[in-house]
Amino acid sequence: MGLVKFPTGIEQGGLAMDKVLMIGADVHDENVLTKFAVGRGAMATRCFRNNRKGRQGLLRFFQEWAERVGARRLVFGYEASCCGYVLRDELVAAGIECYVLAPNKIERSPMQRRRKTDEKDAERILEVLRGFALARGVGARSSDAG
Known about the structure:
By secondary structure, this protein is α/β, with parallel strands linked by helices. The chain has a single domain (16-137), classed as Nucleotidyltransferase, domain 5. The protein is built from 4 helices and 5 strands. It has helices spanning 52-69, 86-93, 110-114, 118-135, and strands spanning 20-27, 31-38, 44-49, 73-79, 97-101. Strands 3-2-1-4-5 form a 5-stranded mixed sheet. Strand 4 (73-79), helix 2 (86-93) and strand 5 form a beta-alpha-beta unit. The protein is globular, with a radius of gyration of 15 Å. Residues 1-15 and 137-146 have low confidence and may be disordered.
């Protein structure tokens, strides 16, 4: 198969990374655990049921959160699994960029593989999204630096 290709859209239109709400998720039959942040900002965690009502709540929550923090784009990523593409289809239909990542293409150290948890998986996916944006030269404004 090959590496996951991300379009260059994260930096299009002069948007800095700090205007992008990025969401990493660990998706299972019963729930969707998310880690999310605006740009390089602090991460937050939220869990949703993986059913129609829960996914509708997920969409509503992140659209409202993006509006509240002034993010003009939402980028969602999760690992491919037996849960299929229902979540992806719903996200794309709502205008949210979604990337379904190949689990074997996400680098993990032996220690990370031994200490695997849903929360750490979601965090790792969020870091993959951030890393892609940073590798493209998209960064937070200098005034945002710690």
